[in-house]
Amino acid sequence: MKAIVANEFGPISQLQYADWPEPVAAGRTVVIEAEVIGVNFPDGLLVRGLYQMKPQTPFVPGMEVAGRVVAVGDEVTRFKIGDRVASVSSLGAYAERVAAHEASVMKLPDAISGQDACALLCGFGTSHHALKQRGQLQPGETLCVLGASGATGVAAVQIGKAMGARVIGVASSEAKREIARQSGADIVLGYDNLKDALKDATDGKGVDVAFDPVGGDAFDALSRSMAWNGRLLVVGFASGTIPKLPVNLTLVKGYSVVGVFWGAFTQKEPAVYAENMKELVGWHLAGKVKPVIEGVYALADAPAVLQRVLGRGAAGKIVLKP
Predict the structure, then answer these.
(1) In the record, which residues are listed under signal peptide (predicted)?
(2) What are 5-21's pLDDT values in tens digits?
(3) 281-289 contacts, C-beta under 8 A, 24 or more apart
(4) Are residues 160 and 58 in the same domain?
């Protein structure tokens, strides 16, 4: 079969569209014929050797796949050949067929497309966990979302509204701010003079919960814009700069800085993760959340697509098709 292969850690341009061994269903493993493959920012970090984990090379990147089960291991009890499913894992999804442990696989209702299913896994899953478990967002609170036109940003805006928050979306261009606005943001801002803009938008009170997948200077602005008892969620560093926190601000302003690592959460708290996904799917079926799919590209185009995602040139969710 064909897959996107990283023979060594390095630039995205070194990825190859090449032959790769067919996956085998054994034990509790199922094999999924890929219909749609999700593209995520961490995929690019992994390829460049900049992510929290470093697999042995060569490897196939990719975290999300939706499709149909074509083989099952002899210990599999939850799935059969022909089931329509989606799966999330740390590796292996940029391929025509993917092996997945049945614990990481969920059945898909017919009403959910493969594209939306992939978006609901990592992007919406990260934002939901961030706002629900880590940020404990409450109805009526003010939520500020950086990168509000990206895959996790759009998700955070929509989930924030579903949870009853007043949402401020921050994005770098008018086109991206329009995406945040259409996703439900009550106020949209750019990054220029962000500290002053947030002060005006909150009448000087500050932000109750901040969702930051960007880092850099924007984090610095947030660190000075938090409300008393606020929660500043550290989600990622798409700017390429890991900021330093003046911890005296947390003392004086009485807020918390909270790390968000969704991948570890899914492993350490699988029952909570399953409940989260059940709630997200329910919200999707009820029309409360709806992923923004920017584009669908061929699997062979993954290197170019991933390079654009890493360069923060994408808006919404991008998916691949074999």
Answers:
(1) none
(2) 999 999 999 999 999 99
(3) 281/109, 281/112, 281/120, 283/159, 283/162, 284/112, 284/116, 284/120, 285/109, 285/111, 285/112, 288/158, 288/161, 288/162, 289/120, 289/124, 289/155, 289/158, 289/159, 289/162
(4) no
